[in-house]
Amino acid sequence: MRLSDLTRVAVYDVGGKRIGRLNDVRLVQDGPYVEGFGAGLRVAGFVAGSGRMGERLGFNRGGVDGPWLLKVFFLRLERRGRFVPWDKVARMENDAIHLSVSAAELRPFEPDE
Prior knowledge:
Layout (H helix, E strand, L loop, with lengths): L2 H4 L3 E3 L5 E17 L3 E12 L3 H4 L11 H11 L3 E4 L3 E4 L3 E4 L7 E2 L5
Parallel strand pairs: 1-6
Antiparallel strand pairs: 1-2, 2-3, 3-4, 4-7, 5-6
């Protein structure tokens, strides 16, 4: 499976409540050594929520000063996102990811992570 297969897939908590879609994947470079590359990458988790247009436009970065109204709007919208550690995935299907925890147990996504 490729990471591109996961983007925009619907995410559901343990009770079947839809959290949103997978918007971003967080990788950690701490895997086995790969010649010519270094430590291998592994998926640490992902961000699920309603959207990430503000992130794509760069409004989540500290150095972006304006337009301030758009920055505030996108930062509030991004707060709805949740970070899902990879070990909380119970099962994956072609069009859905099902978690082993409730949405309330997931921490809000912090854009500066």
